[in-house]
Design a protein that fits this description.
The chain is mainly α. Helices cover 55% and strands 0% of the residues. The chain has 2 domains: 83 residues; 71 residues, no CATH class.
């Protein structure tokens, strides 16, 4: 009795041993036209194994690349696509340079810092006040993800620094919403949405 562990290692295990055997047989066919017909049949079978991937871009191209890999790039046929080169298969991927935005306070994130800058440009006094309170509330929400509690004045001080002194509500009696209130409000909204979905 033969065990899979004793057989040749599969280049692409997801296709299974039978497909690999078909590819190995295709390599032994001497007639070039017959070999191409055999390869076309194998591609059809491979495609039928993963019908949910047929909408993927270049699905056929990918199958032909896989056929070449399973034949160890030794299958001599006229491929309908330019297939992957053997040397490219083992190339290390190019290192992706991640952006490291310069942030004064990482717990707020770059978007909130931009919102603070945007708040400084609002001209209408009433609209500016509302926008500042909105940004400050989001700052508080972001802050407590890192620390359990925060004093509103700490948020106002940070906003002053982020706005380079253009927004100064330090020492004011403005009260930002309690985070537990915000959490309760979100829970109520989510419950309402779930109830609406159930009614539908």
């Amino acid at each position: 009795m033969e065990y899979n562990t004793q057989l040749k290692k599969l280049a692409l295990p997801e296709y299974g041993r039978n497909i690999q055997n078909m590819v190995d047989y295709c390599l032994t066919i001497s007639d070039r036209n017959e070999r191409k017909r055999c390869a076309n049949t194998i591609i059809t079978i491979m495609g039928n194994m993963f019908p949910h991937l047929r909408d993927v871009n270049d699905f056929k191209h990918i199958l032909w690349d896989h056929l070449a890999i399973m034949s160890n790039f030794e299958l001599d046929i006229d491929y309908p696509y330019e297939i992957l080169k053997k040397e490219d298969l083992y190339l290390k991927p190019v290192k992706i340079e991640y952006s490291r935005p310069d942030m004064q306070y990482r717990h707020y994130g770059k978007t909130l810092e931009k919102m603070v800058q945007l708040a400084t440009t609002v001209e209408d006094p009433k609209e500016k006040e509302q926008f500042i309170l909105l940004v400050a509330t989001h700052m508080k929400k972001s802050y407590i993800q890192w620390n359990k509690e925060v004093d509103d004045q700490k948020i106002f001080i940070d906003m002053y620094e982020l706005s380079k002194g253009k927004i100064d509500i330090r020492g004011s009696e403005i009260k930002l919403p309690e985070m537990k209130d915000l959490g309760q409000r979100n829970n109520n909204n989510n419950t309402g949405k779930k109830n609406q979905q159930k009614k539908k």
